[in-house]
Design goal:
CATH topology of the largest domain: D-Maltodextrin-Binding Protein, domain 2
CATH class of the largest domain: Alpha Beta
CATH architecture of the largest domain: 3-Layer(aba) Sandwich
Structural class: alpha/beta
Largest sheet: 7 strands, mixed
Distance between the termini: 50 Å
Helix content: 25-40%
Strand content: 15-25%
Order of helices and strands: HHHEEHEHEHEEHEHEHEHEHE
Number of domains: 2
Number of strands: 11
Number of helices: 11
Radius of gyration: 21 Å
């Protein structure tokens, strides 16, 4: 099995979605399918159970993932260390981003690189689905996540930025002409059903009830990515609140973003309790020194 095929298998085992796997690896879905089919022929057993609605690892697939993952990580880390040595660097800090606005946070990244030229810095996308998986699995060192995060094995560091929320509606939705909306509006329409995350964490992003105590229902279909949200909203299947940065980076003719004047998000650094390295502490110090950014005010 070639290294690229191993990468495809392990990414699909994490994403459990052929489209997201292809997008993440910048290959076609056909390439992903071909690689998996070849692996299954070579092994002589199915690695994934596939239906029109879901992709799941089989027992054989679970075993292969458990056997391959440590070796693959070791190879990746070895190659990364060699590249760093060639550049005269002694380590690299990997930051996962749940929001898609790494560009707006560049003062933090630039300050880290200026203060610590001996270390590299990599910024990576972090998926909504199994959001804490990459940090728990060692694929990243620090996660930029909305707060609060109340996980027993994760440390919450300084807040890096705040933003107001926006309501995403179709251009022809009855709310599209409004200048802004309140969280109370959610109770009249409900929101889309998001991926499986801890209740306290979902409530901090998209509340289960309004300030006056009215329940906010969740409607199918479930979304697992930003593209899913856009599709469901545009086709009239629901509305959804998101961080204001989404409006900055995703201008679309079929979508209207309405400011929510009484709801916002706080984003901070999160890392594993057992992985508080010098590099992690250095980035936390940079954020504390520069202070929390108030973006898109």
């Amino acid at each position: 099995m070639e290294l690229r095929d191993i990468e495809i298998f392990l990414t699909l085992a994490e994403e459990l979605h052929f489209g997201r796997t292809a997008e993440r690896l910048r290959v076609t879905q056909a390439r992903v399918s071909q690689a998996i089919k070849k692996q299954e022929r070579d092994i002589g057993a199915a690695l994934f159970d596939r239906t029109n609605r879901s992709v799941r690892l089989t027992t054989v697939g679970e075993q292969l993932r458990a056997d391959l993952l440590p070796a693959y990580r070791g190879l990746r880390e070895g190659i990364a260390r060699a590249k760093l040595a060639a550049e005269g660097k002694t380590g690299v800090l990997r930051v996962g981003m749940l929001p898609g606005n790494a560009h707006d946070l560049r003062p933090f990244w630039e300050a880290f690189r200026t203060r610590h030229p001996q270390w590299g810095l990599q910024i990576r996308h972090n998926p909504f689905v199994n959001a804490f998986g990459p940090i728990r699995g060692g694929d990243i060192d620090v996660l930029v996540a909305w707060l609060p995060v109340e996980e027993p094995d994760l440390t919450v560091g300084p807040m890096i930025y705040t933003e107001h929320s926006v309501l995403v509606v179709a251009h022809d939705h009855e709310l599209a002409a409004e200048k802004s909306v309140s969280v109370e509006t959610f109770a009249n329409h409900g929101l889309l059903q998001g991926p499986d995350v801890p209740d306290y964490w979902e409530d901090a992003f998209a509340p289960f009830q309004t300030p006056s105590g009215r329940p906010i229902e969740r409607h199918q279909p479930t979304f697992e990515s930003l593209d899913d949200i856009f599709v469901h909203v545009v086709t009239g299947e629901g509305i959804q609140n998101l961080g204001a940065h989404v409006a900055r980076y995703n201008v679309r003719p079929d979508i209207v973003y309405l400011p929510i004047h009484d709801w916002g998000l706080r984003w901070g650094l999160v890392w594993r309790d057992d992985n508080e390295t010098d590099m992690v502490r250095a980035l936390a110090d940079v954020v504390r020194d520069l202070g929390t950014a108030n973006l898109y005010a």
